[in-house]
Amino acid sequence: MGKCEQCIVRQLNSLKSLTKEELVRISACKTSRFVKKGEVIFDEGEHLNGVYCISEGICKVSKMSSNGRDQIIHLVKKGDILGERSLINDEVANLKATAINDMEICFIPRDEIINDLEKNPDFTMSILKDLASSLKSADNVIVDMAQKTVKQRLAEMLINLENRFGHDEDNVLNIHLSREDIANIIGTATESAIRLLSEFKKEGVIKVKGKNISLISIPKLKKIAQGF
Amino acid sequence: MGKCEQCIVRQLNSLKSLTKEELVRISACKTSRFVKKGEVIFDEGEHLNGVYCISEGICKVSKMSSNGRDQIIHLVKKGDILGERSLINDEVANLKATAINDMEICFIPRDEIINDLEKNPDFTMSILKDLASSLKSADNVIVDMAQKTVKQRLAEMLINLENRFGHDEDNVLNIHLSREDIANIIGTATESAIRLLSEFKKEGVIKVKGKNISLISIPKLKKIAQGF
DNA sequence: TTTAAAATATGATAATTATCAGTTTTTCAG
DNA sequence: CTGAAAAACTGATAATTATCATATTTTAAA
Predict the structure, then answer these.
(1) Could you give the dihedral angle defined by the CA atoms of residues B116, B122, B123 and B124, in that order, rounded to the nearest 10 degrees?
(2) Stretch A4-16: mean pLDDT
(3) Given Cys at both, which of A125, B17, B138, B206 links A138, Cβ 3.0 to 4.6 Å?
């Protein structure tokens, strides 16, 4: 189990604002853990009692709608912090986190980190900026969900995946989602997502082989996302 | 122009966490202003340079979609703070604020309040909790927008209006929105919103007279919102 | 490897929602 | 008060999206 002070992942998130001493203290009480693909890290209604720092892998964060379908609200990857919101308002989790590939995650108990939150203004400001930025992007998602067609949303989502996860040497996106997950991100039926992916493929804007998706023309996708 | 120390509205928001001294300082530099119905307080892309504290009235906060329709993301009323996000990340406004009735608002310059944000941990934590709570409700809106039908969303919105704004002695909601605004909250065409309102009226779950809406059966509306 | 289960795919159809066109009602400036 | 503009409304129709049924392919456990 590595030490937080030396952890590279930490540099990617708000924990970078902690002092050396704080990190040593956190390192002593944190626990590291492997999570298998498909495993649920926490579910709606659970008490979190701490935050997770993602060392490796990707998980989806979702919420069940009253109509029985899961809506994926965001994708969390290496370097991201998970559960900070429940930490702040001290409520049970509003969302569910599920690994979409094998992961390694560190858990930091609430009591340790809440102390830093109250004492270290740099750290607090950093969390504050994180939340402000999440809120901005949530607002943008609301607008897209409310105003764009499923086709527009799919195009937009593909561009977002490219920006956030990048692609390998063969231009294949570095994230492999099931068709159902794709549908649950853009808020549509699985069949509709499949049909639109086929349509994009036919039109030559993407290449699809199983869960491997490559974007062939990002400009064209951007046009589709804007309604052309 | 009243003094912040004595302002009742302040008790409703994060400003209640400020000390007497901080309030006196802010009071000295704040400016108060009346805003007419329909007037734009700030628009997307503008530099805010401060936050607004709403003394009276209601405004809509919206964002233009690339398809040319305005999506209303929230309604801000007496006691709410407006523009805190732009304050924190120091970016231009992502949203537009428009008065939906006559308002009175106080403006607090950025420099004054940013100082308190960095120095007063109670105040910072209060803002942090505000943002966490906004983020939670934004996530819930995303789920609804993505998974619910327009009919479900309208029913839900009516319940939200009742909870947030209440009704007068004649059971009429204390907020008077145009049909277009209603459509822009739930993310649909104005005609669709009108049709569904008529349907609800016919079914006897609401009473409508112009912009005066009364909820007759909240339980029925809740059932509709959940898909029955 | 075999086989059952899960995921993906496709077609047909129904339901929802948007758009366009036009009418009626309301609002409000003069 | 009056007339023009804006808002609200209604109908017809088109476009989008969901649902159901079923076939094919892929995955993973025995």
Answers:
(1) 90
(2) 89
(3) B138
